Amino acid sequence: MFASLITAILAFGLALVTTPLAAKLAFKLGILDRPDDKLKKHERPIPYLGGLAVYISFVLTLVAVKFWQHGTVVGVVGILTGATVITVLGLIDDKHALSPGVKFAGQTVAALILIYCNMRLQFVQQPVLSTILSLLWVVGITNAMNLIDIMDGLSSGVGVIASLGFFVIAAASGRFNNMLILAALGGALLGFLPYNFPKARVYQGDTGALLMGFILSSVAMGQGYSRINSMAVLAPILILAVPIFDTLFIMFLRQRRGVSMFRGSPDHLALRMVRLGLSRQQTVLVLWGAAAALSAIAYFSTRMPFQWALLTYVGAGAVALFVAERMGSFPMEKHS
Asked: How many domains does the chain have?
């Protein structure tokens, strides 16, 4: 636990220092998010590359602590390599706006690196099925975290909370490597967050959002969730419920309206909450609270008998359907 605390502190400090440096670099390179009076309504160009600071802080801290503890990076090679692939992909996308096909191809390569390093869904025994489901999980969560990166502090704050949720479960299971990975990610995101909330001075861009989703999805596959009940394998769905819900929600709405999933439109849950009267900061805080509550429920579900865990997930699903029905019926501006 002491090593995890040191990891989180080091990553936090590094991100505090490197984030403003990354913002300056973004200005020099012209990697800026410019307002367009459609979906991007901020007052002035905001630098990207906050995600580069998160990557640097995460990797340097994780490698340093692993060498300090074990003299090797064995056990985290797959996640470091995959994270590097995702970061390079995100940097290129932030600069040149890659096509969805190219992005999916790069994410698939990163996911295959994990699978090669034996990081896959552990509860699926059949190798081919395990590989397919692991690919879908990693690519899906990687993009889900990117999709909720639409409001200052939302995605990065949810990432901090999810890191803590997975960390608690990893600690209960004695998974040292996962604890270090999550401490490094959570600390780096927490160091980035003051520059991104309440009013963003720098964005993490696709670099940071994709990186965060990739790491969280990776660690989720390697967890030993519970020996008490088999429902515990669903705990990651609750911990990552906010991005998962928003992704499925907008997929359904866009399909119903005949709008491409890859084309931005103001139909996200967070934007609907703003239309209902909440401020953007209030919306972010409410969704942070939801993520924290669901992460706590996920943890306790790993400690329950099977019947109670089953009721917990059925109840969570019923609430999700109710929220989707209520929010989906709320009219929004149409964008072609």
From this structure: 1
